[in-house]
Amino acid sequence: xxxxxxxxxxxxxxxxxxxxxxxxxxxxxxxxxxFVAVAGHAPELFDWYAEFYQKVFYGGxxxxxxxxxxxxxxxTAHGCAxxxxxxxxxxxxxxxxxxxxxxxxxPEDPIWxxxxxxxxxxxxxxxxxQPRGFLSADLYAELRPHFDDAQLFEFGxxxxxxxxxxxxxxxxxxxEKEPYCSIGQPTHD
Length: 189
Hints:
Number of strands: 0
Distance between the termini: 24 Å
CATH topology of the domain at 64-169: AhpD-like
Largest sheet: none
Shape: globular
CATH architecture of the domain at 64-169: Up-down Bundle
Order of helices and strands: HHHHHHHHH
Strand content: under 5%
CATH class of the domain at 64-169: Mainly Alpha
Radius of gyration: 17 Å
Mean pLDDT: 96
């Protein structure tokens, strides 16, 4: 079901030119652009988010392939249909095969390299559904042969932004959810 936010989505033509391009990409890759349309109320915040993607997600110290693995693990577990549609395509563009995408919830699957397995475990600790997530000494020891501390810090910051954005997108009903998604469901206050 498409989102029905309380915040008013702006018409595409009223968005700044760069946001119109993002709106068009969202429609093409994900089937909806509600997030972009609502973000038009605060284009400077949308620009900040786009800059995060350019400088940190697609830039930074950590290979995009590892970030795509972690991002797909988060969106699949969280149940973001909007995210999954694009993240699957982006993961395949980063070199993951359809078999990798199918195994995203199974870190122990032999398809994963030791570094990828460690990334999946780290992402598992950052899930919204994992309130007691923790970078344990054992997980750190598993990650450390593949990533230095600067890369691990970048990973943590990247996953924190993605997880926080997921919570925001669900609570504000800005994205389509998978049928199994329980985050952002109405509660009785």
